[in-house]
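Example record

One chain of 808 residues, shown exactly as stored in the release files.
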Amino acid sequence: MLNNFVKTAFRSLFVNKGFSLINIIGLAIGLAAGIMIMLYIFHELSYDKFYKDYERIYRVAVNGRMSGDFFDVAVTPAPMASSLKNEFPEVESSVCLHQSSQQTLFRRDEHVFYEKDVCFADSMFFRIFDFKPLIGDLGTALYQPFSMVITQTIASKYFKNENPIGQMIQLNDQFGFKVTAVIEDPPLNSHFRFPVLLSWQSIEKMLPNRHFESWGSLGFYTYIKLCENVDVEAFEQKIEKYIMVKLIEQSGESPEMFTEVQLEFNSYLQPIHSIHLHSNLMAELSPNSDISYIYTFTAIALFILLIACINFMNLTTARSARRAMEVGIRKVHGGYRAQLILQFLIESVVVSLLALVVSVLLVEFTFPIFNDFLGQGLSVHILSKPLFASIYILLALIVGLLAGSYPAFYLSSFQPAIVLKGGATKGKKNTILRNILVVFQFTISIILIIGTGLIYKQLDFVRNKRLGFNKVNVMQIQLRNDRLKEKADILVNELKALPEVVNASASTLSLGGDTDGTAYFPEGESKTKPWLVFNAGIDYNYIETLGMELILGRNFSRDYATDTAALILNETLWKKLGWGKGAIGKKIKPGDPSGEFEYHVIGVVRDFHYESLHDKIEPFAFYFQETNCRNINIRVQPTNLANSIKQIDKKWTEMEPGFPFDYTFLHQSFNELYNSEQQTGKIFIYFSIIAIFIACLGLFGLASFMAEQRTKEIGVRKTFGASSVSLAFNMTRDFTLWVLLANIIAWPLAYYFLDRWLQTFAFRINIIDVWYIFPLAALASFVIAIFTVTFQALKAANSNPVDALKYQ
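Predicted structure tokens for this chain:
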């Protein structure tokens, strides 16, 4: 019997080729969209689960307060890792990591490149992170000072086909490192990736100013691997106040002193596999995603599949009048309703399975494009794995059964005595259900349209918002070698002499990157309560080069020898201090309130965004520094930008032939801070188009259904003189009412969910200010609906009334 049902299903598909093609295309597009979103979701959920014992690996993070200000960071004191391993039997292994915040110059013979994300680690690293070794012994690879483990990519880049073991690579032309092992590249689904690992014994020589023994300095990443069957919550409680205990012990101060100055550190654990989606702390190793995006994209995938199912239902019921006679004849010849239901469900499943085949081809064809705009490097080969292939086949079966259930029960309910006489196949309940389905389709589509518009406006806002400085036509050059840093002022003066350069300056600040914080003790404030102030060193030209605005006082000047001990405050710090116009000349001591050195305030600069617009502007201060700077900022002439870059490159090569000219533009650096939001916006745009297209197919089917249902009515109306335009308008009116209802439902839902998304930005648009997006979305939905329905409406209205009435 099943064989006969399948044969009948295929016969029905071939008899109604056009109808079948539309059904298959609609479901295929829905399934393809769902598959691509699920591939992305599976990738996001797989982060850091490739380690053998990932469920026992944790990162130690720290939150607390300094002077009453809350902080939550991914870094710990340097001694944390070894101390936890030595003092707690629950810890099987621990490792301390440090990631270089700047790119590092690598040199081997003629191979000279800048590499980013260089990490320091000790030999315990590979007891926690089980990367596959290609050459060398990972157990001893990081024992010796100035030894390094490189990835396969670095090995190919610098050594081609040579054996790299024992070979040397120069870093920043200062330190020679010996290659001791080669490992596979960290996979894309790792929350941190690195080109090389440098031995921990080298870090003190390369970074002499770091506080490697201090329990009060946060700047190092601590990872631990717990023993089996450890009670994680109980262990977390044991280490919560561990840093404070050690800090009190190291400083010799009383606990009451730390309470008085409102300094508090609390340790907690983050499962490594949850970091990518659940952690957005200060000083993350790399930008993370957010679990809310997974929920959003899952909902989009489900909604698109539901819209595709609804589309199938509507197109199937649109043919109900044509299949009513078939149902009647089958029942007269002894067919049971259960058999008819099974027949229609099998037809639906056959369509769904054919759609699955087409959808896989669509995914194969479009996946490179999807990958490009996501920038994730996902692999479509996962589809060939038995588990995932089974999931998608099961998905197709579920979609087929879901999409075919309503038509199957609806068509099988026809009474033969009525339909064989040419009776109507109407039903009030069925009409209500179809209307609800159309409203649902357009509600989702309208929400996606509004979401696309609001995301675009927010991204446009962050791209064009005044940041407190002019980011256009500003080049940033990182100085990665101590010799270059020491002669930063000389390099600046040489570059300023070029006619293509408007101005140039040196600083320790990387706008859009991490910033350093220092404890300050302002005049007139408590000597035991430090103020956490972010700060950076700048030269005489920095404020002018960046186009910042002084709202009080003056800039650093060569006319004042005392400016080497001067500060320029930002507006936030100035207002928080409450000094008003009397701020000029006020004293501030850095670090130690009992120390002799103190700054004096010479100016106040208007607030500027040194981080992304996700973050609020914190108290900030500039101190003077023109040597030992990390960055050079160059404002170039806006005309003939390519020539300006060429001339600066030429000058740089003359000055420093041993260092490749490497630069970024400031506006590009800030745009990269919103890559995640840009990806979200692109997904909304593409899948909104898909959802609307599928919804239009469903609307087309329903219009066809209504045209068939109203054939007699149209014939009668035309006989009594009704025009084609009035008849088409009459048919279109019902659809516009449904779209109106969909807008009424969609608007508050879109407002609620998008307002929650906007709350993740400290600086954001006000939805009320872009109210016009809502009526524009409504207009778009009406235009789409009317355009889709009008074709069928005019076709029915222009039909010959004689054809409609001759059998009545």
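Notes: Residues 449-465+672-808 form one domain.
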